C-alpha cells in the first residue's frame, strides 16, 4: 500500500523522465499530486446531438461509427485518419491528424462517446481529433466530468490522471481533516477526503463546486489562523523601547513641512515604538504620498536610541535611490547611512558588512537580502520594507518570535478593499496616507493611438526643450510577440527620430550595476529620455521628469499604469502621461479612459476590479501571502469574512490550537513554505 509521502516514481508508468517533468510542476510525492488541482474541467456528461451543433466548439457526442476509418498519408509528416459517425439526427465527418493509431481505435457499427472540437467553417462540418470512449452496453449515462490539469511539455493529461489516481488510492480511510467538524456542519462543507475525491474524480459539476468551496474555506481559514497567531505571538514579544525625544530634530531636518497624514503616521510609529511591544505596522498611501520620509522617521528614531535600522527595497535601483534620499537627511542628525547591494564590489561589500556588524552603520539600505542570514547586525532595532507585496508573510514571520523582535514597518501603494486588507495584513496595524504633499498638480493624462505617433514625438522634444525629462515605458516582450517593440528597439527608433536628444535604455536583463549607473545618470540629467521596461514601476523618484509615455498601455493593468504614472508629477513642472493603445479596441480605450479621468489610486483600483475581475487584479504573486492554491482573494470575500471570524473564535478559546492537532500542523506547514523568490 503506497503512502502519500512516497515518491511518484513508485507509480506504474512513471519513469525517471516523467518524474523529472512532473517535478517541473512541483510534483514529487503522491501528496503533491493530490494538491495539484485541475485548472479546469471538461463536462462530457452533457451530450449534443449532431443536428444541434450550431457553432464551433468542443462537444461530447454519442454516435455510431458509420464508415471504416481510412488512413491517408498526405505528404511526409502528415497522416489523416478519416471516417464518418452518425446518431439519430444526422452524420458528421471525423478527422484525426497525425494519429495513425486512431484507425485501430474505433470499429464500424460500434457506439462511442466522442469528445472534441467541431469545426463548421470548412467545406464540411468536421469533428477534429476527438477522443473516443466505447460505451458499455446498457450505459444510459455515458460521459464523465474530466479534470484538466496544468501541464508542461512532454506530459499528457493521462500522465497527470495516472499519478492523481494513485494518490487518491493512497489516501487513508482515517485521513485527518484540519477543519473542525462543527465548522464543516455549520457551512455545509464536505470532509477533506471527499472533497479531494470530488476535485480529482468528480461525478457532477455540483460536486466540484462544493469541493472547491470547501478548499477555499480551508485555505482561508488556515491563513487566518496563521496570521492571527503571528499577530498574537508578536504582541507577546518584548519590544525595544524607543524614546521619541529626537523626533523634533528629525522633523526640523526635513526639507519640507510634513503633510498632516505623514505627521499622523509618524506619531503612530513613535507611539508603537515606545509601547514596549514590537511594532507591526503597514503604511498605505498612493504613489507620491510621501511614504519614504515616514519610514525614514523610524530609522532616525532607531539610530537616536542606539539601534540599527534596515531599510529594504524591492530592487537594487530603489535601494540606491533610497540611500541617496536618506543619507543627507540622516547626516544632519549625525546618523550614518550605508548602502549594501549585491552588485557592489567585493572590497566595498566587505567594508559595509563589517560596519553593519560593528554597529558603525546605523541605517542600512539594501534589498530584501538584508534580512538573510549572511548579514549580521550589531543591534537591529527596526526594519522597513518598501512595497509590501514583495515582503510576504513568510518574511514577516521570519522576523517574529525571536525574543526581542525588531519593529517592522511595511509600506504599500496598492489600494485594496477593506475586507481583503484585514486578511492580507491580518497581522499588521495600518496607517493611511490619504493626503498628497501640497502643490502637486494632477498629471494630465491622455490615451492615444498610433495616428498620434509623430505629434507625441514632437511633444517629447518640446518637454525636453523646456528642461524636462521623459520616461518611455515598454511592456516586456515575450518570444514570438512580433507586433510589439522591445525597449531596446524602441530606444533605437526614438534616438533616430530625435538625434539631438540623449536616449538611455533600461531593461530587466541588464546587470544590476549597469541599471544603477543608467538610473543615476538619468537622475543627474545626463540623459533626456529613459526608455525602460517596468523596472521603473516601483518607487523611483526623479522630480525633474515630467512626461511619461507608455507604449502598448493596453498590456498593463490599470493599477500598474497608475503606479507608473506616479513616477511623474513629483516636481513643480506640469506633468503629462500618455498611453498608447487607445486604438486597440473599445475595451482598451475604455480602460485607459478611466486613468484620464482620475488621479486617485483608490478610484482606479475600484474601476480596475470592476472591469477586469479579481483574478487578474491581483495576479498570483502580488499579494505576498503564502501561495494560495484555490482561493481567489477577491472573489471569495464572503467566505473570507466567515473564515476570519471563525479563526478568531477558535484561537480566542485555544490560542495554541492544542485541541486541533491537524489544524495546527497544517497552519504550521502553510507558513513554513518559504517564498525565497521574494527575497530577491
Ligand atoms: P511614495 O509614497 O510614492 O513612496 P515618496 O516618498 O517617493 O512617495 O515621495 C514622493 C516625492 O514627494 C518625493 O520627491 C518627496 O521628496 C516628496 N515629498 C514627500 N513628502 C513631502 C511633503 N510633505 N512636502 C513636499 N514634498 C514631499
Ligand atoms: Mg516609494
Secondary structure layout:
Blueprint: H1 16-24, H2 30-34, E1 40-43, E2 57-65, E3 70-75, E4 78-87, E5 90-97, H3 102-105, E6 111-119, E7 126-134, E8 145-148, H4 157-170, H5 181-186, H6 192-200, H7 205-236, E9 238-239, H8 247-253, H9 260-274, E10 280-285, H10 291-304, E11 308-313, H11 316-331, E12 337-340, H12 346-358, E13 363-367, E14 380-386, H13 393-399, E15 404-405, E16 407-412, H14 418-424, E17 429-433, E18 444-448, H15 453-465, E19 469-473, H16 487-497, E20 503-506, H17 512-523, E21 529-532, E22 545-550, H18 558-565, E23 576-580, H19 586-597, H20 601-612, H21 614-618, H22 637-653, H23 661-672
Parallel strand pairs: 5-7, 9-15, 10-16, 10-17, 11-13, 11-14, 12-13, 14-16, 18-23, 19-21, 19-22, 20-21, 22-23
Antiparallel strand pairs: 1-8, 2-4, 2-6, 3-4, 4-5, 6-7
The structure holds adenosine-5'-diphosphate and magnesium ion.
Write a structural description.
The structure is a single chain. The chain is α/β, with parallel strands linked by helices and 680 residues long. It is 38% helix and 19% strand. It has 23 helices and 23 strands. The strands form five sheets. Strands 12-13-11-14-16-10-17 form a seven-stranded parallel beta sheet, with helices on both faces. Strands 18-23-22-19-21-20 form a six-stranded parallel beta sheet, sandwiched between helices. Strands 2-4-5-7-6 form a five-stranded mixed barrel. Helix 11 packs across helix 17. The protein is globular and about 90 Å long. The site of magnesium ion (MG) has 4 residues, from helix 10. Magnesium ion (MG) binds next to helix 10.
Amino acid at each position: 500500500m503506497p503512502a502519500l509521502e512516497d515518491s511518484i516514481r513508485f507509480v506504474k508508468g512513471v519513469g525517471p523522465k516523467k518524474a523529472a517533468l512532473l517535478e517541473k510542476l512541483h510534483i514529487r510525492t503522491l501528496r503533491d499530486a493530490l494538491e495539484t488541482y485541475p485548472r479546469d474541467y471538461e463536462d462530457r456528461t452533457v451530450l449534443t446531438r449532431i443536428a444541434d451543433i450550431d457553432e464551433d466548439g468542443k462537444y461530447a457526442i454519442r454516435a455510431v461509427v458509420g464508415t471504416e476509418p481510412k488512413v491517408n498519408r498526405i505528404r511526409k509528416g502528415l497522416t489523416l485518419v478519416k471516417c464518418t459517425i452518425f446518431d439519430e439526427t444526422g452524420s458528421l465527418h471525423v478527422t484525426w491528424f497525425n494519429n495513425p493509431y486512431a484507425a485501430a481505435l474505433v470499429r464500424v457499427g460500434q457506439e462511442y462517446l466522442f469528445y472534441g472540437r467541431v469545426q463548421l467553417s470548412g467545406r464540411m462540418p468536421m469533428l477534429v481529433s476527438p477522443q473516443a470512449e466505447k460505451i458499455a452496453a446498457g450505459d444510459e449515462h455515458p460521459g464523465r466530468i474530466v479534470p484538466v490539469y496544468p501541464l508542461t511539455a512532454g506530459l499528457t493529461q493521462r500522465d497527470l490522471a495516472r499519478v492523481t489516481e494513485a494518490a487518491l488510492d493512497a489516501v487513508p480511510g482515517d485521513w485527518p481533516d484540519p477543519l473542525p467538524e462543527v465548522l464543516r456542519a455549520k457551512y455545509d462543507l464536505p470532509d477533506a477526503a471527499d472533497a479531494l475525491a470530488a476535485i480529482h474524480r468528480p461525478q457532477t459539476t455540483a460536486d466540484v463546486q462544493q469541493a472547491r468551496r470547501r478548499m477555499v474555506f480551508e485555505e482561508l481559514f488556515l491563513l487566518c489562523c496563521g496570521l492571527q497567531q503571528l499577530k498574537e505571538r508578536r504582541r507577546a514579544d518584548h519590544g525595544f523601547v524607543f524614546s521619541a525625544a529626537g523626533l523634533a530634530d528629525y522633523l526640523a531636518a526635513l526639507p519640507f513641512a510634513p503633510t498632516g497624514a505623514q505627521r499622523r503616521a509618524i506619531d503612530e510609529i513613535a507611539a508603537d515604538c515606545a509601547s514596549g511591544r514590537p511594532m507591526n505596522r503597514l503604511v498605505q498611501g498612493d504613489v507620491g504620498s510621501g511614504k519614504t520620509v515616514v519610514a525614514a522617521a523610524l530609522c532616525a528614531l532607531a539610530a537616536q536610541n542606539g539601534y540599527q535600522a534596515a531599510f529594504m527595497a524591492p530592487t537594487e535601483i530603489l535601494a540606491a535611490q533610497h540611500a541617496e534620499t536618506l543619507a543627507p537627511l540622516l547626516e544632519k542628525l549625525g546618523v550614518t547611512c550605508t548602502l549594501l547591494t549585491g552588485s557592489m564590489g567585493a572590497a566595498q561589500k566587505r567594508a559595509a558588512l563589517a560596519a553593519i556588524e560593528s554597529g558603525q552603520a546605523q541605517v542600512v539600505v539594501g534589498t530584501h537580502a538584508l534580512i538573510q542570514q549572511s548579514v549580521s547586525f550589531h543591534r537591529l532595532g527596526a526594519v522597513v520594507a518598501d512595497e509590501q507585496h514583495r515582503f510576504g508573510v513568510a518574511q514577516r514571520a521570519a522576523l517574529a518570535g525571536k525574543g526581542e523582535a525588531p519593529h517592522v514597518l511595511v509600506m504599500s501603494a496598492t489600494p485594496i478593499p477593506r475586507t481583503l486588507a484585514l486578511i492580507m495584513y491580518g497581522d499588521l496595524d495600518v496607517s493611511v496616507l490619504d493626503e498628497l504633499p501640497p502643490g502637486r498638480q494632477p498629471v494630465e493624462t491622455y490615451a492615444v493611438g498610433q495616428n498620434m505617433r509623430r505629434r507625441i514625438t514632437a511633444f517629447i522634444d518640446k518637454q525636453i526643450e523646456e528642461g524636462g525629462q521623459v520616461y518611455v515605458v515598454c511592456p516586456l516582450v515575450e518570444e514570438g510577440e512580433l507586433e510589439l517593440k522591445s525597449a531596446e528597439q524602441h530606444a533605437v527608433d526614438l534616438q533616430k527620430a530625435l538625434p539631438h536628444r540623449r536616449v538611455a535604455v533600461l531593461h530587466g536583463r541588464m546587470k544590476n550595476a549597469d541599471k544603477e549607473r543608467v538610473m543615476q545618470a538619468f537622475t543627474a540629467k545626463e540623459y533626456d529620455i529613459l526608455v525602460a521596461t517596468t523596472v521603473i514601476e516601483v518607487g523611483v523618484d526623479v522630480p525633474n521628469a515630467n512626461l511619461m509615455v507608455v507604449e502598448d498601455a493596453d498590456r498593463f493593468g490599470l493599477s500598474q499604469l497608475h503606479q507608473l504614472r506616479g513616477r511623474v508629477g513629483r516636481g513643480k513642472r506640469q506633468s503629462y502621461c500618455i498611453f498608447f493603445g487607445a486604438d486597440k479596441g473599445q475595451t482598451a480605450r475604455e480602460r485607459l479612459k478611466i486613468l484620464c479621468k482620475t488621479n486617485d489610486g483608490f478610484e482606479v483600483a475600484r474601476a480596475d476590479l470592476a472591469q477586469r475581475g479579481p483574478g487578474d487584479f491581483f495576479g498570483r504573486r502580488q499579494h505576498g501571502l503564502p501561495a494560495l492554491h484555490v482561493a481567489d482573494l477577491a472573489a471569495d470575500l464572503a467566505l473570507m469574512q466567515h473564515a476570519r471570524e471563525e479563526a478568531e473564535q477558535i484561537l480566542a478559546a485555544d490560542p495554541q490550537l492544542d485541541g486541533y492537532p491537524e489544524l495546527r500542523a497544517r497552519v504550521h506547514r502553510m507558513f513554513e513554505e518559504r517564498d525565497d523568490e521574494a527575497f530577491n
